[in-house]
């Protein structure tokens, strides 16, 4: 009788990356990092410091080096376990650059020209609109497709890049034969778009020249309290989620992410209370949310030997998966393999 050996089903894979282009903000944390930690328990996770992406904007070499290590320490500080998830530095896995080149040749100029982040960044860095900035979404597609990721947890600003990654995957699969898993974005209901505290029509961003507009994940408690106290609100004085109340809506979103309360519960909690009370509660919730992250970060960031080990082990595990996909691609395209 034929024996059927039942293979355990492969856990679905998630992949995501963060650029080491400054100190990450509360937006990065609530929109992405916090979800990575939650999802890492149920999926095979691979998470990278996207250093190759960061040089699309000029970086000071000494600061850049330090930021890469700092973001790797942050991945540990949010609670990701390097024994379970693959934590790595993008440039340590050459397959990212190699696949990106191949995929460049399967992506149209017109498609890239429509990317809103390229349009925004070419305005804010008008003196350095380089080809890397233009081709950035293709490198991002390579990051995702190399790992056959099923799910990509990101903030709402990355949705368009995810769509192009899906298009590139489908195009390649149709031209040759199924090669890439077509990834789905995972965009949290809350926190997907944390807005600037000073201009709640704009995304909270680490590159904003006004430091009062963003909370960095390493801000001291008293700094967080001050920044939230000076957040722009409106003159109505009622804590309720409604059109035209962008400042309050943003703070309610932040509070909801940190406490797990929904908007109705938040409105009930602050019924009859003013913005002063509400802001104090939001600040306290953010301080408590970030406290363990900051404390763990202090421990990891100074342990250079451990960080080096984590990066080396991560690069090895990541390369094993990435190289397999790259080989498949090279073969299908018709390259003569070495
Ligand atoms: P980056 O480094 O700008 O941001 C990292 C993650 O944080 C999210 N995010 C936000 N979420 C909510 N509110 C905000 N204000 C906010 N600001 C940032 C981003 O959506 C992102 O999820 N291109 C990516 C990095 C990347 C990547 C990848 C992501 C490179 N390769 C492959 C996923 C898969 C970026 O610049 O993220």
Mean pLDDT: 95
Question: How many distinct beta strands?
Answer: 5
Output the CATH homologous superfamily of the largest domain: HUPs
Give the SSE string: EHEHHEHHHHEHEHHHHH
Radius of gyration: 21 Å
The CATH topology of the largest domain corresponds to Rossmann fold
Q: What hetero molecules are in the model?
A: tryptophanyl-5'AMP
User: Helix/strand/pairing class, anyone?
Assistant: mainly alpha
Largest sheet, strands/sense/barrel:
3 strands, parallel
Give the tally of structural domains.
Answer: 2
Name of the level-1 CATH class of the largest domain: Alpha Beta
Q: Shape, please? A: globular
Q: Helix share of residues?
A: 40-55%
State the end-to-end distance: 42 Å
CATH architecture of the largest domain: 3-Layer(aba) Sandwich
Figure out the total of helices: 13
What does this structure look like?
It is built from 13 helices and five strands. The chain is mainly alpha-helical and 338 residues long. The protein folds into two domains: 13-191 and 304-333, Rossmann fold (3-Layer(aba) Sandwich); 211-298, Tyrosyl-Transfer RNA Synthetase (Orthogonal Bundle), CATH 1.10.240. α1 (26-40) links the parallel β1 and β2 (44-49). The radius of gyration is 21 Å and the shape is globular. The two termini are 42 Å apart. 41% of the residues are buried. Bound molecules: tryptophanyl-5'AMP (TYM). Tryptophanyl-5'AMP binds at residues 15-19, 27-28, 31-32, 50, 53, 140, 143-144, 152, 154-155, 157-158, 191-194, 203-204.
């Amino acid at each position: 009788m034929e024996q059927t050996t039942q293979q355990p089903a492969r856990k679905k894979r998630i992949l995501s990356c963060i650029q080491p282009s400054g100190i990450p903000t509360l937006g990065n944390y609530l929109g992405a990092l916090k979800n990575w930690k939650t999802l890492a328990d149920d999926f095979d996770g691979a998470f990278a410091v996207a250093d190759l992406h960061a040089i699309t904007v000029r970086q000071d070499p000494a600061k850049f080096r330090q930021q890469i290590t700092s973001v790797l320490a942050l991945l540990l500080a949010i609670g990701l376990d390097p024994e379970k998830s693959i934590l790595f530095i993008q440039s340590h896995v050459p397959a990212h650059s190699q696949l990106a080149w191949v995929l460049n040749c399967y992506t149209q100029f017109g498609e890239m020209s429509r990317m809103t982040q390229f349009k925004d960044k070419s305005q804010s860095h008008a003196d350095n609109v380089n080809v890397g900035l233009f081709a950035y979404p293709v490198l991002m597609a390579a990051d995702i497709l190399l790992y056959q990721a099923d799910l990509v947890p990101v903030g709402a600003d990355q949705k368009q890049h995810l769509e192009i990654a899906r298009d590139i995957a489908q195009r390649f699969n149709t031209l040759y034969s199924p090669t890439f898993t077509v990834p789905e974005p995972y965009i949290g209901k809350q926190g997907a778009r944390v807005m600037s505290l000073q201009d709640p029509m704009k995304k909270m961003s680490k590159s904003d020249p006004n430091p009062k507009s963003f909370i960095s994940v390493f801000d001291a408690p008293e700094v967080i309290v001050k920044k939230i106290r000076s957040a722009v609100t409106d003159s109505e004085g009622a804590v309720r989620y409604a059109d035209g109340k962008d400042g309050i809506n943003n703070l309610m979103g932040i509070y909801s992410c940190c406490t797990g309360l929904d908007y109705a519960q938040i409105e009930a909690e602050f019924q009859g209370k003013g913005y002063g009370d509400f802001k104090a509660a939001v600040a306290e919730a953010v301080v408590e949310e970030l406290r363990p992250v900051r404390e763990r970060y202090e421990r990891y960031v100074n342990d250079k030997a451990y960080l080096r080990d984590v990066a080396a082990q991560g690069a090895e595990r990541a390369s094993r998966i990435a190289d397999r996909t790259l080989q498949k691609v090279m073969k299908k395209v018709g390259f003569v393999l070495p």
